[in-house]
Design goal:
- The chain is an alpha/beta fold and about 260 residues long.
- The chain has one domain: NAD(P)-binding Rossmann-like Domain (Rossmann fold, 3-Layer(aba) Sandwich).
- It contains nine helices and eight strands.
- It has an eight-stranded mixed sheet, with helices on both faces.
- Helix 4 links the parallel strand 1 and strand 2.
- The radius of gyration is 17 Å and the shape is globular.
- It starts with 11 loop residues before the first helix and ends in a 16-residue tail after the last strand.
- The mean pLDDT is about 95.
- It binds zinc ion.
């Protein structure tokens, strides 16, 4: 991040666009400039990634990179709200890029059609100030977690199923990583049930966490797993310790 560069001065139109969030003393123009300087990577443009990238773009992150290699199917549309009926068959990264560019022309939106793997994960997240977990599988989540830990990039994890969700903010060196939370991948069912409002809720929380981390306001969900149970409308926090034996972050020095 580069502070005090005129490149990141807010134009009069941007000041008006972000007026209602600039009124928050904790964010203010200083925080908004930090958002404008930042690159947010959204890994997966599905149920979590659509609403997450929508709110990242609306909030004024300067650059938003969207990564997904899937094409849109009819059964995606109950939750992947950036993809519309006429988009069926298009790449998700490109469909989302189109909508987000129209939402906020001050944000550089980059849709990348790529399947995240061991070989490309490093280059895909290079230079990111925050990475949003929009995945539906733990294999790719672990790849992202491991690369984020190596490069000390904040990683905002969320997962959803049915009307339930979970969230944890991973700041490498400051708290546990995803492998501290799950030493082995949880059992996954595919395709899993999901109500769109659940993924929207957890994605909105991911964006709030990203804003807090990048603008350095408030207290992110570090070292705590937030669990949401939709049937009873209940939130719960579970403390998570950093595992000194963690193969990924165990040897990492404190940030
Ligand atoms: Zn760890």
């Amino acid at each position: 991040m580069r502070t005090n560069s005129p490149e990141f001065d807010l134009t009069s139109e941007e000041l008006e666009l972000y007026d209602r969030q600039l009124r928050m003393p904790s964010l203010g123009i200083k925080g908004q400039r930090k958002l404008k300087e930042s690159l947010a990577v959204v890994a997966g443009i599905g149920g979590l990634g659509c609403p997450a990238s929508l709110y990242l773009t609306a909030a004024g992150f300067g650059r938003v990179k969207l990564i997904d290699n899937d094409v849109i199917e009819l059964s995606n549309l109950n939750r992947q709200v950036l993809h519309w009926h006429h988009d069926i068959g298009r790449f998700k990264a490109k469909s989302a890029e189109d909508k987000l560019r129209r939402l906020n022309p001050f944000v550089k939106v980059m849709g990348i059609v790529a399947k995240i793997d061991e070989k490309n994960v490093e280059s895909l997240i290079e230079g990111a100030d925050v990475v949003i977990d929009g995945q539906d599988n733990y294999k790719t989540r672990f790849l992202l977690n491991d690369a984020c830990v190596r490069h000390r990039i904040p990683f905002i994890h969320a997962a959803v199923q049915g009307v339930n969700g979970q969230l944890m903010t991973i700041i490498p060196g400051k708290g546990p990583c995803l492998r501290c939370l799950f030493p082995s991948p949880p059992i996954e069912t595919k395709p899993f049930p999901i109500v769109g409002a659940t993924s929207a809720l957890m994605a909105a929380l991911q964006v709030l966490e990203a804003i807090k981390v990048v603008a350095k306001i408030g207290t992110p969900m570090i070292g705590k797993l937030l669990l949401f149970e939709g049937e009873d409308t209940r939130f719960e926090e579970v403390p998570i310790m950093r595992n000194p034996e963690c193969p990924v972050c165990g040897k990492l020095e404190e940030a």
